[in-house]
Amino acid sequence: MNHYSISNSLRTILFVMMGLGVLCLGLTWIGDDHSHTRFWSNVLHNAVFFTGIAIMATFFMAASITAYAGWYTAFKRVFESFSAFLLPGFIIMTLIGVAVFMHANHLYHWADEKSVANDEILKGKSGFLNKNWYLFGTVIIGAAYTYIAMKIRSLSVAEEHTEGEANFSTHRSIRTYAAIFLPVFGFTSVVLIWQWIMSVDAHWYSTMFAWYSLASLFVAMMCLVALLLIYLRGKGYYQNLSKHHVHDVGKFIFGISVFWTYLWFSQFMLIWYANIGEETIYFRERYDNYPVLFFGNLVINFALPFLILMRNDTKWKTGSISFIAVVVFLGHWLDFFLMVKPGVLHTAHELVGHAAEGGHGAAETAGGGHGAEAVSSIVSGFTFPGMLELGTMLGFLGLFMFTILTALSKSSLTSEKDPYVGESLHHHV
Amino acid sequence: MAHKEVIFGLYSDEQDLLKAIRKAKSSHLDIMDVYTPFPVHGLDPLLDLEESRIHIAGFIYGMIGTLTAFLSMTWITTKDWPVIFGGKPYWSVPAFIPITFELTVLFACVGMVITFYIICGMGPGVTNPTLDDRITDDKFCLAFDKAHVSENDARALFSSTGAEEVNSKTI
Question: Chain B contact for A269, CB < 8 A?
Fold first, then answer.
């Protein structure tokens, strides 16, 4: 069973998930305030999260190829199929960028020209945080990532069909593209995180933020890889893999979870210790108004994987690894929720305030009920994920899984011609 | 310690060694020990060795380190010598975390090293007999205790599995 095909029941499930996502987005749009804050923040949250997972899968692949790593080669198609989501992911991000460009949403405080005109800090940042660069940067960086990922993927498929003795020329050109991707990724991934996520809190910045959120995405990506491997092995595919492969994926979940905690805490402690108002406002807001998520974030993403995956056998036993993969995946989704929502909500408040000053905002303020009532009380959809947020997430997950499973079904599951496949099949720890 | 009469064969390939071990097990020869210059894959299950329990000890040492650091910092900063740093409360938990982390690692590492030395009977001033110096370099050694395995059986096994040298030593 070296060729995967999506079963009809799974296809139905994925389409139902996507339909649910569209339905939830529609319901969010209808019951929203006048600038559709909840709708746009949900789209941004999920689009960044799943596009980021695809980016991190591409990064993992490029780093492993460049490092001559062989252990994952037998299932490298999984990572290649993850990178197939780069195209739809960046298209959605570009649509958000177009909406920012046309002032169709109010996700970002810096995108509001009236606010920037009276704000020295935003004026100082406007060289980077402006609607032109936001759209242009998303498109150009996304095009570069997608091009390299598609090139690696197509060369990897072509490698399999080479006739005769392998001369490794295809593998060498894959390695060239992978090596080119790494510096491109290194300099531009932080830019994407700054403009997509960190600029939601337009006045605030942290130099550790990009690392921290990329570590978050890496863990989420590895959780999906573990779940997909367990699912495929349960369906009879990938019988050539042993428990040692799943074990190593488990080690990545364990290790990068600790790395994520290290970055989370380093960022928190520096800001807490320096105690500068411009910086502490980020944590003050979350600590006061999102206490369950703020501390739950650490429990779900650090304490649980650290204590459960510390043992040897829990990293490859199906029950424990799939439990922790589901929990930690949702945990990092919540982490991104906590990055996006407070800042967007704050921007919505500010804009409602400006509108009221302008003398025509009274009616709109009433319409923007979420903006006024949310602070210091649990409001589903802003201070805590509601059903519509979960439904949207399932919709994006359905789209993501459909994209990657379609890509997975287009070539063999294990590439027999890859020079590292023998090493991978005899992987033993 | 009682002296042991040991007969041992030296191999220069780990695959030959693994074959010899399988043959010794199938003919019910009681293997005393196996010495290799580097970890050989598949050797542990072949010798029916249990998984080491040293990581459980390491976890306990780590927890002791965590508690030592956290409780002593708490006592120092709140009871013994309270000083205000940077306007923070006496009991400032985030500031304790780095030290707690360091002591957890330190206690776990040092504790496991000491435990390992005690279990293996090693320590300053202790000399352990070596069957042959080359087993730390490029030779793989399979050893039998003459009290349990007759010399003829051992020599027959070594010659049939391609041992390069067969020697005896009293340790």
Answer: yes
Chain A residues with CB under 8 Å of B98 CB are 269
In this structure, are residues A47 and A93 in contact, taking their beta carbons and an 8 Å threshold?
yes
d(CA A423, nearest CA chain B) in Å: 14
A275 vs B: CB within 8 A: yes
Q: Which of A69, A231, A210, A62 is nearest to A148 (CA)?
A: A62
Contact yes or no for A275 and B51 at CB 8 A: no
> CA of B93: which chain A residue's CA is closest?
A269
Provide the pLDDT for residue A166. 64
Dihedrals φ, ψ of B34, to 5°? Answer: -130, 135
CB contact under 8 Å between B86 and A275, yes or no, is yes
Cβ distance of B41 and A428 shorter than 8 Å: yes
Minimum mean pLDDT among A57-66, A161-170, B159-168: which range? A161-170
Nearest CA in chain B to A313: B51
Residue A233's φ and ψ, nearest 5 degrees, are: -65, -35
For CA atoms A79, A82, A87, A93, the dihedral sign is: negative
Please indicate whether, in this complex, the C-beta atoms of A265 and B97 are within 8 angstroms of each other. yes
Decide: helix, strand or coil at residue B23.
helix
Number of H helices, E strands in chain B: 5, 4
pLDDT at A363: 39
Domain ranges of chain B: 5-37+138-170, 54-119
- DSSP class of A48: H
Q: Given this model, what pLDDT does residue A75 score? A: 93
Report the pLDDT value the prediction gives residue A164, as an integer from 0 to 100: 66
Task: List the single residue in B42, B87, B97 with the smallest CB-CB distance to A269.
Answer: B97
Confidence class for position B149, pLDDT limits 50, 70, 90: confident
Mutate to test the interface with B, among A272, A306, A312 (most CBs of B within 10 A): A272
Nearest residue of chain B to residue A258 (CA atoms): B101
Closest alpha carbon within chain A to B101:
A262
Rounded Cα distance between A323 and A311, Å, is 15
Q: What's the whole-number mean pLDDT along residues A388-406?
A: 96
For B160, residues 6+ apart whose C-beta sits below 8 A from its C-beta are B23
* Mean pLDDT on A270-274: 93
What is the CATH architecture of B5-37+138-170? Answer: 2-Layer Sandwich (3.30)
Range with the poorest average pLDDT among A24-28, A321-325, A394-398, B145-149: B145-149
Q: Which residue of B has its CA nearest to A426?
A: B41
**What is the average pLDDT score of chain A?**
90
Q: What share of chain A is helix, strand, coil (3-state, %, to 5)?
A: 75, 0, 25
pLDDT at A83 (0 to 100): 95
What is residue A252's predicted lDDT score, i.e. its pLDDT? Answer: 96
Sort out which chain B residues have CB atoms less than 8 A from A268's CB and list them.
94
